[in-house]
């Protein structure tokens, strides 16, 4: 099912006296259970598109339709609620809170997402998601004792703990070595399929494209290609 539509989206920034159009009319549809990878040169507008889709900044023109609702006409409080309850985020660095254990990071996220679960149920959810990402044996560990790949697994668990509909990931493997990148990507792919999430992911790494269902290449604020990953030529990245 198509649950996310980016419709004729434009974004203009004003830098001093100069107005610069960074997104020049983007149309994109994302489906449940699929990973869409966004690639393109540095500065082509990938992160801008991702943050606009996630309601972290407004569009200049065009609309974002999520579950049939136009997010661009919602109040900022309504957008915040959608973001907190329906979206998950993963970035290049895990950004874990240094003085909280793995389990506590996830409990905190349940509070932020205004979870209605009782404490006992929250703890069960934390155990369930940690098992899913293969980190249940480290639930009482602090971030400083985890490897980069393990931290990223916890960050993914944190992004998924409130059962979001959409996962936004901006270069989630950029700080990892090749093996850990593959582990993290295959985890994102698995979770997208098994939990039927819609995933939009920015990446620079050509090797990660084999984990995507669609590849969107951006160039200078426009979509250059939009293809099924199995049809994509290797040089596309
Ligand atoms: N808030 C802002 N104000 C002004 N210009 C901005 C702002 N955010 C982004 N830009 C500009 O928009 C362009 C696209 O930035 P964006 O971060 O989307 O690129 P990107 O494709 O994610 O690049 P990278 O691969 O380096 O992360 C850049 O030229 C950037 O300087
Ligand atoms: Mg970027």
Structure description:
The longest helix has 17 residues, at 178-194. This protein has one domain (2-231): Rossmann fold, CATH 3.40.50. The chain is of the alpha/beta class. The chain has 6 helices and 10 strands, in the order βββαββαβαααβαβββ. Helix 3 crosses helix 4, helix 3 runs parallel beside helix 5 (148-160) and helix 5 (148-160) runs parallel beside helix 6 (178-194). Helices cover 31% and strands 29% of the residues. Adenosine-5'-triphosphate (ATP) binds next to strand 1 and helix 1. It is a peripheral membrane protein. Belongs to the ABC transporter superfamily. HrtA family. Part of the ABC transporter complex hrt involved in hemin import. Responsible for energy coupling to the transport system. One of its GO terms (cellular component) is plasma membrane.
Quickly list its features.
Rossmann fold; binds magnesium ion; 237 residues; 6-stranded mixed β-sheet; single chain; alpha/beta; binds adenosine-5'-triphosphate; 4-stranded antiparallel β-sheet
Query: What compounds sit in this structure?
Result: adenosine-5'-triphosphate, magnesium ion
What would the principal axes of the Cα set say about the shape?
A: globular
Percentage of residues in helical conformation = 25-40%
Total domains: 1
Spans of at least 5 consecutive residues with low confidence: none
CATH class category: Alpha Beta
Structural class: alpha/beta
Please give the alpha-carbon distance between the first and last residues. 27 Å
CATH superfamily: P-loop containing nucleotide triphosphate hydrolases
CATH architecture annotation: 3-Layer(aba) Sandwich
From the 3D structure, determine the CATH topology. Rossmann fold
Strand content: 25-35%
Q: How do the SSEs run, as a string of H and E? A: EEEHEEHEHHHEHEEE
Strand order of the largest sheet: 6-7-8-3-9-10
Q: Give me the count of strands.
A: 10
Work out the radius of gyration.
18 Å
């Amino acid at each position: 099912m198509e649950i996310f539509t980016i419709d004729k989206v434009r974004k203009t920034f004003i830098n001093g006296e100069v107005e610069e159009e960074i997104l020049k009319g983007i149309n994109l549809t994302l489906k449940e259970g699929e990973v869409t990878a966004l690639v393109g040169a540095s500065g082509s507008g990938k992160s801008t598109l991702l943050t606009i889709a996630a309601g972290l900044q407004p569009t200049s023109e065009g609309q974002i339709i999520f579950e049939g609702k136009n997010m661009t006409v919602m109040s900022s409080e309504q957008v915040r609620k959608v973001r907190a309850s329906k979206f998950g985020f993963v970035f290049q660095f895990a950004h874990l809170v240094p003085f909280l254990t793995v389990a506590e990071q996830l409990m905190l996220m349940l509070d932020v997402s205004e979870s209605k679960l009782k404490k006992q149920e929250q703890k069960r959810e934390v155990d369930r998601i940690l098992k899913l990402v293969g980190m249940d044996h480290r639930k009482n560990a602090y971030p400083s004792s985890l490897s980069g790949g393990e931290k990223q697994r916890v960050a993914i668990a944190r992004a998924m703990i409130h059962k979001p509909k959409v996962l936004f990931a901006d270069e989630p493997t950029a700080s990892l070595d090749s093996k850990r990148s593959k582990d993290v990507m295959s985890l994102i792919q698995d979770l997208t399929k098994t939990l039927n999430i819609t995933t939009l992911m920015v990446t620079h790494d050509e090797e990660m494209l084999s984990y995507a269902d669609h590849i969107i290449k951006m160039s200078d604020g426009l979509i250059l290609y939009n293809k099924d990953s199995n049809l994509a030529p290797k040089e596309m990245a």
